[in-house]
Design brief:
With about 300 residues, the protein is mainly alpha-helical. The chain has one domain: MetI-like (MetI-like fold), CATH 1.10.3720.10. The protein has twelve helices and no strands. It has helices spanning about 1-30, 30-50, 50-55, 85-120, 125-135, 140-150, 155-180, 185-195, 200-210, 210-235, 245-255, 260-290. Helix 4 (about 85-120) runs parallel beside helix 12 and helix 7 (about 155-180) packs antiparallel against helix 10. The chain starts with a helix and ends in an 8-residue tail after the last helix. About 35% of the residues are buried.
Length: about 300
Amino acid sequence: MHLSILESGTEEKRSRNSEWRRVVRGLRKSPLAVLGSVIIGILIAIAIFAPFLAPYSPTKMRLSERLSPPSSRHIFGTDDVGRDILSRVIYGSRISLRICTVVVGLTIGIGTILGVTAGYLGGWVDELIMRISDVFLAFPALILAMAIAAALGPSLENVILAMVVIWWPRYARVARGQVLVLREIDYMVAAKAIGISGGRTFIHHILPNCISPIIIQATLDLGEVLLTAATLSFIGFGAQPPTPEWGAMISLGRNYLRDNWWYATFPGLAILITVMGFNLLGDAARDVLDPRLRRSP
């Protein structure tokens, strides 16, 4: 029987590897995935090479050139203190990627650990973790983030912390649901019956099988994280001037929108294109990874 369990585990690993190869092929064949990947790839390249791509310093003021319209000298124009908007948009990509990766990365780690623990141990541990997550999920995410950011004080770091606090329950619930399904699978029940250690079962069977739904959730959340962070900066809880964050740039530019349209328009387009890239990639990943949405060839 022990040999049968080992063979089942080996077969499971082979099946998982085959599944990931199928996922990669599916993403390559999806026009939406390709387009989203290109957009995000360009954004990452811009963020990495920002010092070489930006024609000017993003914070240096040139009052003699304030509110200059788009031209060959300043392709996106300048703001109310003469800073080059193109340079600020380019450097803003770094901040946006930092927010997305830090928030999603931390929430995946915290939420997955808590969710898997709740589902695997059950009992009062499960009840405690899930009731705490219910408290956070009971409030609209943006309103709760505003309240936490206001209590902590306006800064980019506090916005990131506030978003981590409100986002982890999503991943906890996804991971817990997956664990509850896995616990009832035959080879998991048999492994427990013959005394295979819980740690081994946890590492080799439970965690790997939680990856797909977590990835789906993460890819769908990236665009929402960026929008939420930009919104918080727009209303004054996030990045503070002169930080070149897209939401804060739009907030400053709204006062000049009537006569100086370029001030808020280009940061807004940067948010639009980036969120579209994340959403396209997320939708394609969901279609490929979610078994309920798979179509027979």
